[in-house]
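We were asked to recover a plausible sequence for a given structure. The inputs and outputs are reproduced exactly as logged, with field labels preserved.

PROBLEM: sequence recovery
POSITIONS: 173
GIVEN STRUCTURE:
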């Protein structure tokens, strides 16, 4: 049985088909919608006026593993496109802007069991008057995580790999 989100998507595609919209059967995109050519690094360079030079990939101990193309080409949690051969896959664990380094690690080194969300934008209100229980997600298809707005949230050591990593955005509901 389809989930509510899946039913909504199917209904949306049916409507798009009836209206003969050209994207009625277009595959879903994980890209940034306002960067039509997919070259988000060029978009960032154009809009910041800055260059992002190559630097070192390092492991958790600081050993140089290779060269990266520039910090803007990578996201925390990324596994593909690193160009580093290793016995097990490497992931981007951290981006160090001060030293222009990207820290790589294993899946186990990437995941956390507890995290704190900071710099919240509550949209409808300026700030919370007092702490409250909140539900959040750090990934679209992730199971909701519950926490208190004034203390760290527990990911429960999620073995599915869905635990958040440092630098991950979060949707708090």
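RECOVERED SEQUENCE:
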């Amino acid at each position: 049985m389809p989930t509510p989100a899946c039913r909504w998507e199917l209904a949306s595609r049916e409507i798009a088909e009836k209206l003969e919209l050209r994207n009625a059967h277009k595959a879903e995109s994980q890209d940034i919608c306002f960067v039509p050519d997919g070259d988000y690094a060029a978009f960032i360079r154009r809009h910041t006026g800055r260059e992002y030079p190559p630097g070192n990939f390092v492991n958790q101990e600081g050993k140089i593993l290779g060269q990266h193309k520039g910090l803007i080409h990578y996201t925390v949690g990324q596994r593909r496109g690193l160009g580093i051969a290793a016995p097990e896959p490497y992931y981007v664990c951290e981006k160090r802007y001060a030293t222009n380094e990207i820290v790589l690690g294993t899946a186990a080194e990437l995941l956390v069991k507890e995290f704190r969300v900071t710099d919240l934008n509550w949209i409808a209100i300026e700030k919370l008057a007092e702490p409250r229980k909140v539900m959040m997600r750090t990934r679209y298809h992730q199971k909701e995580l519950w926490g208190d707005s004034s203390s760290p949230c527990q990911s429960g050591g999620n073995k599915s790999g869905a635990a958040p990593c440092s630098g991950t955005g979060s949707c708090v509901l």
